[in-house]
């Protein structure tokens, strides 16, 4: 009998939800270990991931194997828990094209979306050149996806795969990342929008987002990840520092 895989996460970030949706699709038992943002770079979590980033997993079915980096986790999960190739490649070319897209998501989409989100929403001063650069990079990534999805429903093959799922959590934050009007994030990229909607209308996504909303509510967080009543990341970080200093006295 398969024991639940532990998924360590802070609920606001997009990367843990790639893992959760894939586990839901594969019907693999899991349990979420939800931690607060201020504890990501502290023990006990840094004993699992010294880089202090989420997600990380612990698999009790494999001698308590610990893995971090969402791409590595996804690769492991489909190798170990997808024998019927539900989300995996069924041929040599499919296998390697899926890995190609996963690397592009991890090296292209995630970092550029993250930097755009930072300079649009959290940097303490507005830097128009940085905002322009990273918004342009977001649109460049969307352009790559738009062209490759022309005449296709999915990135590889004729069904959803882990590659499609890997892109969805960051694309779901597109409006916030680029600070555009609600619903305008996909403007000019109809193929990407239709593809994203195919992923996010699946039961696995719906259930995962229900879990996310519950965890966010438990931590009293807004949908942008800040505690309710806190206006900026800098204000929150100041509060965390003051709390840590008080606890150490």
Automatic annotation (TrEMBL):
<dbReference type="InterPro" id="IPR040079">
    <property type="entry name" value="Glutathione_S-Trfase"/>
</dbReference>
<dbReference type="InterPro" id="IPR036249">
    <property type="entry name" value="Thioredoxin-like_sf"/>
</dbReference>
<feature type="domain" description="GST N-terminal">
    <location>
        <begin position="3"/>
        <end position="85"/>
    </location>
</feature>
<dbReference type="InterPro" id="IPR036282">
    <property type="entry name" value="Glutathione-S-Trfase_C_sf"/>
</dbReference>
<dbReference type="Pfam" id="PF00043">
    <property type="entry name" value="GST_C"/>
</dbReference>
<keyword id="KW-0808">Transferase</keyword>
<feature type="domain" description="GST C-terminal">
    <location>
        <begin position="91"/>
        <end position="223"/>
    </location>
</feature>
<dbReference type="InterPro" id="IPR004046">
    <property type="entry name" value="GST_C"/>
</dbReference>
<protein>
    <recommendedName>
        <fullName>glutathione transferase</fullName>
        <ecNumber>2.5.1.18</ecNumber>
    </recommendedName>
</protein>
<dbReference type="InterPro" id="IPR010987">
    <property type="entry name" value="Glutathione-S-Trfase_C-like"/>
</dbReference>
<dbReference type="Pfam" id="PF02798">
    <property type="entry name" value="GST_N"/>
</dbReference>
<comment type="similarity">
    <text>Belongs to the GST superfamily.</text>
</comment>
<dbReference type="InterPro" id="IPR004045">
    <property type="entry name" value="Glutathione_S-Trfase_N"/>
</dbReference>
């Amino acid at each position: 009998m398969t024991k639940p895989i532990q998924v360590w996460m802070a609920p606001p970030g997009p990367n843990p939800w790639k893992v959760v949706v894939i586990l839901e699709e594969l019907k693999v038992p899991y349990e979420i270990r939800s931690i607060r943002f201020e504890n990501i770079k502290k023990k006990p979590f840094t004993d699992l991931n010294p880089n202090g980033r989420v997600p990380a997993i612990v698999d009790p079915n494999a001698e308590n194997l610990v893995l971090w980096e969402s791409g590595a986790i996804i690769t492991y999960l489909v190798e170990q828990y997808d024998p019927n190739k539900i989300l995996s490649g069924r041929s040599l070319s499919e296998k390697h094209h899926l890995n190609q897209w996963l690397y592009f998501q991890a090296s292209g989409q995630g970092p550029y979306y993250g930097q755009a989100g930072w300079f649009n929403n959290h940097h303490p001063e507005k830097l128009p050149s940085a905002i322009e650069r990273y918004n342009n990079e977001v649109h460049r990534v969307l352009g790559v996806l738009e062209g490759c999805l022309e005449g296709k429903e999915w990135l590889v093959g004729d069904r959803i795969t882990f590659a499609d799922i890997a892109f969805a959590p960051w694309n779901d934050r597109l409006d916030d990342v680029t600070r555009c009007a609600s619903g305008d994030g996909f403007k000019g990229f109809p193929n990407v929008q239709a593809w994203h909607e195919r992923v996010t209308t699946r039961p696995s996504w719906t259930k995962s987002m229900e879990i996310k909303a519950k965890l966010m509510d438990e931590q009293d967080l807004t949908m942008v990840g800040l505690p309710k009543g806190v206006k900026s990341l800098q204000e929150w970080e100041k509060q965390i520092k003051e709390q840590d200093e008080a606890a150490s006295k």
